[in-house]
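Sample intake sheet
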Amino acid sequence: MRHGVFYDRPLQKQREFQSQIRERDMKKFTFSPKSVLIEVAKLLVMLFIVANVVSYLKKPEVVDQTLPNLNVTLPDGTARNLESYAGKPLLLYFWGSWCPICKMSSPVISDLSQKYQVVAVAVNSGSDKDLKSYMQAHDLHFPAVNDADGAIAQKFGVDTFPTTFIYNSKGSLIFTDVGYTSKPSLLLKIWLGDIF
Protein backbone atom coordinates (compact mmCIF):
# COMPACT_ATOMS: atom_id res chain seq x y z
CA MET A 1 0.00 0.00 0.00
CA ARG A 2 1.31 3.33 -1.00
CA HIS A 3 0.93 6.46 1.08
CA GLY A 4 -0.57 9.41 -0.60
CA VAL A 5 0.71 12.95 -0.66
CA PHE A 6 -1.32 13.75 2.42
CA TYR A 7 0.49 11.14 4.50
CA ASP A 8 4.07 11.65 3.23
CA ARG A 9 4.33 15.38 4.00
CA PRO A 10 3.43 15.13 7.71
CA LEU A 11 5.87 12.22 8.13
CA GLN A 12 8.62 14.18 6.42
CA LYS A 13 7.94 17.26 8.59
CA GLN A 14 7.90 15.09 11.70
CA ARG A 15 11.27 13.58 10.75
CA GLU A 16 12.74 17.05 10.08
CA PHE A 17 11.42 18.26 13.42
CA GLN A 18 12.91 15.26 15.25
CA SER A 19 16.23 15.84 13.46
CA GLN A 20 16.26 19.49 14.57
CA ILE A 21 15.56 18.48 18.16
CA ARG A 22 18.39 15.92 18.07
CA GLU A 23 20.80 18.56 16.73
CA ARG A 24 19.73 21.04 19.42
CA ASP A 25 20.17 18.41 22.14
CA MET A 26 23.60 17.44 20.82
CA LYS A 27 24.70 21.09 21.02
CA LYS A 28 23.80 21.06 24.71
CA PHE A 29 26.22 18.20 25.31
CA THR A 30 29.17 19.41 23.27
CA PHE A 31 31.60 21.33 25.40
CA SER A 32 34.26 23.70 24.28
CA PRO A 33 37.41 23.97 26.40
CA LYS A 34 36.36 27.49 27.37
CA SER A 35 32.92 26.39 28.61
CA VAL A 36 34.48 23.53 30.60
CA LEU A 37 36.93 25.94 32.27
CA ILE A 38 34.11 28.34 33.10
CA GLU A 39 32.06 25.56 34.70
CA VAL A 40 35.09 24.30 36.67
CA ALA A 41 35.83 27.85 37.86
CA LYS A 42 32.21 28.26 38.99
CA LEU A 43 32.39 24.98 40.87
CA LEU A 44 35.67 25.92 42.56
CA VAL A 45 34.33 29.31 43.64
CA MET A 46 31.22 27.64 45.03
CA LEU A 47 33.32 25.05 46.92
CA PHE A 48 35.57 27.82 48.27
CA ILE A 49 32.57 29.75 49.58
CA VAL A 50 30.96 26.68 51.14
CA ALA A 51 34.25 25.59 52.74
CA ASN A 52 34.80 29.03 54.27
CA VAL A 53 31.24 29.23 55.60
CA VAL A 54 31.56 25.76 57.17
CA SER A 55 34.98 26.68 58.59
CA TYR A 56 33.56 29.85 60.10
CA LEU A 57 30.54 28.09 61.60
CA LYS A 58 32.59 25.23 63.08
CA LYS A 59 35.41 27.45 64.35
CA PRO A 60 36.09 26.85 68.04
CA GLU A 61 35.61 29.64 70.54
CA VAL A 62 39.16 30.47 71.63
CA VAL A 63 39.30 32.56 74.78
CA ASP A 64 43.05 33.21 74.72
CA GLN A 65 44.07 34.93 71.48
CA THR A 66 47.80 34.49 72.18
CA LEU A 67 50.05 31.45 72.29
CA PRO A 68 49.22 29.73 75.57
CA ASN A 69 51.67 28.84 78.28
CA LEU A 70 51.44 25.11 77.60
CA ASN A 71 54.20 22.53 77.85
CA VAL A 72 54.19 19.82 75.19
CA THR A 73 56.44 16.83 74.65
CA LEU A 74 57.60 16.22 71.08
CA PRO A 75 58.22 12.74 69.65
CA ASP A 76 61.97 12.99 70.20
CA GLY A 77 61.29 13.47 73.93
CA THR A 78 62.08 17.18 74.11
CA ALA A 79 59.67 19.32 76.09
CA ARG A 80 58.75 22.76 74.78
CA ASN A 81 56.44 25.50 75.83
CA LEU A 82 54.18 26.79 73.06
CA GLU A 83 55.12 30.37 74.03
CA SER A 84 58.70 29.58 72.95
CA TYR A 85 57.54 29.47 69.31
CA ALA A 86 56.86 33.22 69.27
CA GLY A 87 59.15 35.17 66.94
CA LYS A 88 58.06 33.34 63.78
CA PRO A 89 54.62 32.32 62.50
CA LEU A 90 53.31 29.05 63.94
CA LEU A 91 50.75 26.59 62.62
CA LEU A 92 49.14 24.63 65.44
CA TYR A 93 47.48 21.71 63.66
CA PHE A 94 44.95 19.45 65.42
CA TRP A 95 44.39 16.19 63.58
CA GLY A 96 43.83 12.47 64.06
CA SER A 97 45.10 9.35 62.32
CA TRP A 98 41.46 8.18 62.18
CA CYS A 99 40.24 11.35 60.38
CA PRO A 100 39.71 10.98 56.59
CA ILE A 101 40.03 14.73 55.86
CA CYS A 102 43.23 14.84 57.93
CA LYS A 103 44.70 12.25 55.55
CA MET A 104 44.33 14.82 52.76
CA SER A 105 45.51 17.87 54.69
CA SER A 106 48.39 16.34 56.67
CA PRO A 107 50.73 16.13 53.63
CA VAL A 108 50.12 19.86 53.05
CA ILE A 109 51.03 20.63 56.67
CA SER A 110 54.05 18.33 56.44
CA ASP A 111 55.24 20.21 53.36
CA LEU A 112 54.79 23.58 55.10
CA SER A 113 56.72 22.31 58.13
CA GLN A 114 59.87 22.31 56.00
CA LYS A 115 59.78 26.14 55.91
CA TYR A 116 57.51 27.24 58.77
CA GLN A 117 57.09 26.34 62.43
CA VAL A 118 54.47 23.64 62.86
CA VAL A 119 53.28 21.81 65.94
CA ALA A 120 50.79 19.08 65.19
CA VAL A 121 48.58 17.70 67.93
CA ALA A 122 47.48 14.14 67.15
CA VAL A 123 44.20 13.65 69.00
CA ASN A 124 43.04 10.16 70.07
CA SER A 125 45.51 8.52 67.68
CA GLY A 126 46.78 5.71 69.90
CA SER A 127 50.10 5.25 71.64
CA ASP A 128 53.34 7.07 70.83
CA LYS A 129 54.44 3.97 68.93
CA ASP A 130 51.20 3.89 66.91
CA LEU A 131 51.55 7.57 66.08
CA LYS A 132 55.18 7.22 65.04
CA SER A 133 54.47 4.26 62.75
CA TYR A 134 51.46 6.06 61.22
CA MET A 135 53.57 9.13 60.48
CA GLN A 136 56.33 7.02 58.93
CA ALA A 137 53.85 5.05 56.81
CA HIS A 138 52.28 8.28 55.51
CA ASP A 139 55.59 10.16 55.09
CA LEU A 140 54.67 12.95 57.53
CA HIS A 141 57.59 15.02 58.84
CA PHE A 142 56.07 17.56 61.20
CA PRO A 143 56.63 17.47 64.97
CA ALA A 144 53.57 15.84 66.51
CA VAL A 145 52.42 15.87 70.10
CA ASN A 146 50.42 12.79 71.08
CA ASP A 147 47.19 13.99 72.68
CA ALA A 148 46.02 10.45 73.45
CA ASP A 149 43.20 11.52 75.76
CA GLY A 150 42.18 14.71 73.89
CA ALA A 151 43.06 17.03 76.79
CA ILE A 152 45.01 19.53 74.66
CA ALA A 153 42.25 19.64 72.02
CA GLN A 154 39.72 20.23 74.78
CA LYS A 155 41.82 23.09 76.19
CA PHE A 156 41.68 24.78 72.76
CA GLY A 157 37.97 24.00 72.29
CA VAL A 158 38.67 21.81 69.26
CA ASP A 159 35.99 19.25 68.45
CA THR A 160 36.17 19.21 64.63
CA PHE A 161 39.15 17.83 62.74
CA PRO A 162 41.37 18.99 61.24
CA THR A 163 41.57 22.40 62.87
CA THR A 164 44.51 24.71 62.25
CA PHE A 165 45.37 27.76 64.34
CA ILE A 166 47.73 30.23 62.69
CA TYR A 167 49.70 32.50 65.01
CA ASN A 168 51.77 35.43 63.75
CA SER A 169 55.36 36.12 64.80
CA LYS A 170 54.10 38.11 67.81
CA GLY A 171 52.26 35.04 69.11
CA SER A 172 48.77 36.38 68.34
CA LEU A 173 46.10 34.13 66.86
CA ILE A 174 45.25 35.49 63.43
CA PHE A 175 43.35 32.69 61.66
CA THR A 176 41.50 29.52 62.55
CA ASP A 177 40.73 27.01 59.80
CA VAL A 178 38.43 24.04 60.25
CA GLY A 179 38.47 21.24 57.69
CA TYR A 180 40.68 20.88 54.66
CA THR A 181 42.75 23.93 53.77
CA SER A 182 44.93 24.18 50.69
CA LYS A 183 48.60 25.09 50.71
CA PRO A 184 48.05 28.41 48.86
CA SER A 185 45.38 29.39 51.39
CA LEU A 186 47.66 28.62 54.34
CA LEU A 187 50.60 30.44 52.74
CA LEU A 188 48.43 33.50 52.13
CA LYS A 189 47.24 33.50 55.75
CA ILE A 190 50.80 33.15 57.08
CA TRP A 191 51.89 36.02 54.84
CA LEU A 192 48.94 38.20 55.89
CA GLY A 193 49.66 37.38 59.52
CA ASP A 194 53.16 38.76 59.25
CA ILE A 195 51.87 41.98 57.70
CA PHE A 196 49.30 42.67 60.39
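Comment: The mean pLDDT is 85. The helical segments are 5-28, 33-58, 100-112, 128-137, 151-155, 183-195.
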